[in-house]
């Protein structure tokens, strides 16, 4: 094998490792992003679901993925796998907050109650 072939194989191998590594590292990365928002004033919030829940000690899905029926919280039910926009419209509907308020209220109220986590806009909406 000549030097040119070895260098080419090494470069191809290196590029493969870099691309596969980058792709795998993004598997856990989630953006809290709803297609319902047509225009954005800030980037979608970056949120690593499993890492967050492990660090915060969140074990019950309904802590975030809540279900309400007739205004009553259903403690034994959760909405995991359902987009927030399926229940929350862009604008508030009676006592049900609009989508943006629901996102902010869900995250920030927990962070405030626990005295932990990001509170400022740029800490979640990272440019």
UniProtKB/TrEMBL annotation:
InterPro entries given in the database record: c3_cytochr_TmcA, Multihaem_cyt_sf
Top-level taxonomic group: Bacteria
Record has Glycosyltransferase as a keyword: no
Record key words, sorted: Signal
Signal peptide (UniProt feature, chain positions): 1-25
The keyword Hydrolase appears for this protein: no
Identification of the protein by name: Cytochrome c class III
Organism of provenance: Desulfovibrio ferrophilus
Taxonomic lineage from the root: Bacteria, Pseudomonadati, Thermodesulfobacteriota, Desulfovibrionia, Desulfovibrionales
């Amino acid at each position: 094998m000549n030097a040119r072939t070895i260098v080419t194989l090494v470069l191809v191998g290196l590029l493969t490792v870099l691309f596969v590594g980058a792709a795998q590292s993004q598997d856990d990365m989630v953006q809290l992003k709803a297609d319902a928002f047509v225009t954005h004033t800030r980037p979608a919030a970056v949120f690593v679901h499993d890492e967050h829940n492990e660090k915060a000690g969140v074990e019950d899905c309904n802590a975030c993925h809540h279900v309400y029926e007739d205004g009553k919280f259903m403690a034994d039910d959760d909405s995991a796998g359902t987009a927030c926009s399926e229940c929350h419209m862009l604008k508030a509907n009676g006592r049900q907050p609009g989508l943006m308020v629901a996102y902010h209220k869900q995250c920030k109220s927990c962070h405030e109650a626990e005295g932990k986590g990001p509170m400022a806009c740029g800490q979640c909406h990272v440019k």
